[in-house]
Design brief:
Chain lengths: 318, 304
């Protein structure tokens, strides 16, 4: 029984961390219409940043600053934001394809750099030697996992509330206005390039937060954690859940992560031994089909965006 | 150094061929097609199957055309694969992209193309297995062009370069000398105005997919001849091809050709200064440099 519960806690922690990432992507794609093809680079920047800033000294690569944990996490988020600022500055003025291609390129280059630059982050061996915060007080066992889950849950709820308020604020209205009709927004004296850059950076910082929590959870990060697979998974979560709807984003994260875990388990349990090598391929075909199928038959997701009319025209009085 | 330059030109020849189709699609249909590189894999594997079939049915064709490692069967396979891949591109458009296009925004197409890329790549992996394949199991010996500095070139590589240049010249003739070429440019410029003037939009889109798919097939086969066939080759080719289109300017066929060679040469020259592990990042660095210096590429024009 304790086994089932501890597995559920593990599952819920991972799903909640991914849900935070999906919320970040939702701000970019769902609310602003920015295509981020390199989700994993910002997620990874957060994870690597947090572990390097907060970890114990390691021979041979950067790290060991041993910062107080919340500061390390904030540092990871700032690094993700910095990457987003550079990419956004270069591409957000151009037609939208450029952002898609450049962000995709960032993800490839990030993984490539982390895999090769041993002096920076340990190369293929990854970043080790990170002590999870409060480990001395809570130990490594079940108690710690419950505690960590609760912390992640609180951060998820806080992120959700923050984004709900942001989207309902004048700034959120501006984001939707630019998404729907850039020229109209411009004619009202708004600066679309700047607003989009702000939304892109904010979303990426949230992706970095999710990455930082992910790195903390495993107390380890390696190039294996920043493969393009994660980008596809996070997108599938947003598209299935419903772009533009924060509740849809969280719902999609739990649903797709559940389906991914279950399909992986079923394939490893029931597929014949000689086919085991190909279970990854089957899972990718499934996730690709989910993305394409949703776009073809239900482009607005399971929980579509609720469009609000912020100011109704006066009804003519009789 | 000179060897790197020569290898770069040869790499550039297949990147250019892939980039031409991609830039046309991005220009006419206005979306970054992340599944274009999978058409290269599709073409390469289609040629592998066709090569085996022709060799088995007509043994005369299975003889190597010395000094190339190429057989007559593979040459037949190139043409068959071009048609097959062009038609596949058309079918994928009909089944998926056309529907998404009619339903949603432009950017939904980018998502859909990522999904298609995942599906095609992994179906190829399931069908052909994950281990690498080769068109010819024999070792192709390189010719020594010069001993000091040592410069080696394989006969196959020269064939690849010449064939790629011939194809590009043919495409240039089609684009600049035929009515079809004019209508293509008209659609790219202004789809509605072109339609008013009697250009059939649907047929132009079909032609773009056929040409793009056909050239992608050749690019994939040439990649296979120079390296090996693996199901994930599309994943490794997608960024170089995109970099070529951005360097050349999205929508410019000549830009794509030049961009392809620049990406190929830069990737190989980078080996002089960087460890080979960093090669996959070079296209990204090129993209960043171009975006800083000349955001619309060498031949591109500003278009919202």
């Amino acid at each position: 029984m304790i086994g089932v519960i501890s597995y559920l806690v593990f599952f819920a922690t991972t799903a909640s961390i991914l849900a935070i990432a999906v919320l970040g992507l939702n701000l970019q794609w769902g609310n602003t219409g920015l295509f981020n093809g390199g989700v994993v680079a910002f997620f990874g920047a957060g994870a690597y940043g947090t572990l390097i800033l907060g970890g114990t000294p390691q021979a041979g690569h950067l790290g060991g600053y041993g910062l107080f944990y919340p500061l390390a996490l904030l540092g990871g988020m700032a690094i993700a934001g910095l990457v987003a600022w550079i990419v956004g500055l270069l591409t957000l003025r151009l037609r939208h394809d450029y952002l898609a291609i450049a962000t995709f390129g960032v993800a490839v280059a990030f993984e490539n750099l982390m895999r090769n630059a041993e002096w920076l982050a340990g190369g293929a061996k990854g970043v080790r030697g990170f002590e999870r915060p409060l480990r001395d007080a809570l130990g490594d066992g079940f108690t710690y996992n419950i505690f960590f889950f609760l912390v992640v849950l609180v951060i998820l709820i806080a992120t959700y509330l923050f984004l709900e308020r942001l989207v309902a604020s004048p700034f959120g209205r501006l984001l939707r206005a630019i998404r729907e009709d850039e020229e109209a927004a411009q004619s009202l004296g708004k600066n679309p390039a700047r607003v989009r850059l702000m939304a892109f950076i904010t979303g990426s910082v949230i992706l970095g937060l999710a990455g930082g929590l992910y790195g903390t959870f495993y107390a380890f990060v390696s190039p294996q954690d920043v493969l393009p697979t994660l980008t596809f998974q996070i997108w599938a979560m947003l598209i299935v859940g419903g772009a533009g709807n924060n509740r849809g984003a969280i719902f999609g994260a739990f649903l797709i992560w559940g389906a991914w875990t279950a399909s992986g388990w079923a394939l490893s349990r029931f597929a014949p031994i000689e086919a085991q090598l190909y279970t990854g391929s089957v899972q990718f075909i499934l996730i690709g089909s989910v993305i394409v199928g949703m776009l073809m038959w239900r482009p607005h997701g399971l929980l579509p965006e609720r469009l609000v009319v912020s100011q109704r025209g006066k009804t003519p009085s009789a | 150094m000179i060897q790197n330059l020569i290898d770069g030109v040869l790499t550039g020849s297949y990147i250019s061929l892939g980039a031409i189709g991609l830039t046309l699609v991005m220009h006419i249909l206005r979306f970054a097609n992340f599944s274009h590189a999978e058409l290269l894999s599709l073409g390469a594997y289609a040629a592998l199957v066709c090569d085996a079939l022709v060799s088995a049915l007509v043994p005369v064709f299975a003889v190597k055309l010395a000094p190339l490692s190429l057989t007559g069967a593979l040459i037949v396979a190139i043409f068959v694969s071009m048609v097959f891949t062009g038609l596949s591109a058309l079918v994928i458009d009909r089944l998926v992209f056309k529907r998404v296009r009619e339903k949603g925004q432009e950017l939904s197409m980018v998502f859909a193309s990522f999904g298609m890329a995942l599906i095609i790549r992994n179906v190829i992996g399931l069908v052909f297995g994950l281990s690498p394949e080769l068109y010819s199991k024999d070792i192709a010996f390189a010719m020594i062009l010069s001993r000091d500095p040592l410069i080696l070139v394989k006969p196959d590589q020269i064939f690849v370069l010449v064939a790629a240049l011939v194809l590009m010249f043919l495409l240039h003739l089609i684009l600049s000398r035929t009515t079809f070429g004019y209508s293509l440019r008209a659609v790219a410029e202004n789809p509605s105005l072109a339609q008013v003037n009697g250009v059939n939009l649907q047929r132009t889109i079909m032609a773009v997919w056929l040409i793009g798919g056909g050239l992608a097939a050749v690019a994939g086969i040439f990649y296979g001849l120079s390296h090996q066939l693996i199901p994930v080759m599309g994943r490794d080719l997608v960024l170089p091809i995109f970099a070529a289109t951005i360097v050349g300017g999205i929508g410019s066929v000549y830009g794509a050709v030049l961009g392809g060679f620049i990406v190929g040469i830069a990737g190989n020259l980078a080996l002089v200064v960087l460890p080979s592990g960093y090669t996959p990042s070079v296209p990204f660095l090129l993209i960043i440099v171009v975006l800083i210096l000349r955001p619309h590429g060498l031949f591109g024009e500003a278009r919202a």
